[in-house]
Specification:
Strand content: 25-35%
Order of helices and strands: HEEEEEEEEEEHEEH
Radius of gyration: 19 Å
Shape: globular
Number of helices: 3
Largest sheet: 6 strands, antiparallel
Structural class: alpha+beta
Length: 200
C-alpha cells in the first residue's frame, strides 16, 4: 500500500497519460488519446519532479504497470489502475477511485463485452477509495487480448459512472512487468515472547 500511495501522490506530475471524462451508464466516456504508452512501467518510488516514470527496474526493485486517468480541464486524477506481480509470481490489480464513491454499491470491472466482475470497496484514505482483485489466468488473457477495461462505480448522488480504460499497450507493458523482479514475500509476524513466570 505504501508504494501505491506514492504512485498516487506523484501521479499527475510525472505521468503523461490519457484524459477521460465520466458519463452515466450505459454511455461510456470518449477517451482523449495522449502521446506515449497508455500503460507505464513504474519501478520503485517515482520522483515527483520527474516528467516520466522510471523506465526500467533499478536495484532489483519491484515494478508496477500503471495507467493514470485524468478528467476535466484541470486534469485532476479520476482513477488509477495498478497491476503488480505477487510474491507467488501471479498478478494483482488495485484500482484507486476518486472521493465520493458510494461504498455499498461496489465497483465492477469488465473487459470489452465479457460479464462484469463485482468488487467491494476495500478501504479509503486521503487519496480516495480502493478496490482490488487477484488477476487469474483467464482475466489476464482477457486483458492481454482486449481493447477496453470498463470500471464502473456509483457516485454519492446515485449516478452510475462507467470509466473506459484503454488496453492499448497493455501486452507490451505486461511483458516488461513480468521481466521485473518479484516483490519480496511478506515476513511472518514474530511469535510473541512468553512472559517469564511470576515468582511465588
Amino acid at each position: 500500500m505504501e508504494m501505491i500511495a506514492a504512485l498516487l501522490a506523484a501521479g499527475a506530475s510525472w505521468m503523461g497519460l490519457e484524459a477521460q471524462q465520466t458519463a452515466p451508464a450505459p454511455a461510456a466516456a470518449p477517451a482523449a488519446q495522449a502521446s506515449g504508452p497508455a500503460w507505464q512501467l513504474v519501478c520503485g518510488q517515482a520522483p515527483a519532479a520527474s516528467p516520466t516514470p522510471t523506465p526500467a527496474p533499478a536495484a532489483n526493485q519491484p515494478c508496477s504497470l500503471v495507467q493514470n486517468l485524468l478528467a476535466g480541464e484541470q486534469k485532476q486524477r479520476l482513477l488509477t489502475v495498478i497491476l503488480q506481480r505477487t510474491p507467488q509470481a501471479g498478478h494483482s490489480m488495485t484500482i484507486a477511485l476518486p472521493h465520493g464513491v458510494l461504498f455499498p454499491a461496489g465497483v465492477s470491472v469488465q473487459v470489452d463485452e465479457a460479464p462484469e466482475k463485482p468488487l467491494a470497496v476495500q478501504t479509503s484514505d486521503q487519496n480516495g477509495a480502493y478496490t482490488g482483485i487477484a488477476v487469474d489466468p483467464a482475466l489476464l488473457t482477457a486483458l492481454r487480448g482486449g481493447k477496453t477495461l470498463k470500471i464502473g462505480f456509483t457516485a454519492g448522488n446515485g449516478q452510475r459512472i462507467i470509466v473506459p480504460v484503454t488496453l492499448r499497450d497493455f501486452p507490451a507493458g505486461l511483458t516488461a512487468l513480468d521481466k521485473s523482479p518479484l516483490p519480496p514475500a511478506p515476513r511472518p509476524a514474530p511469535a510473541p515472547t512468553p512472559a517469564p513466570p511470576k515468582p511465588r
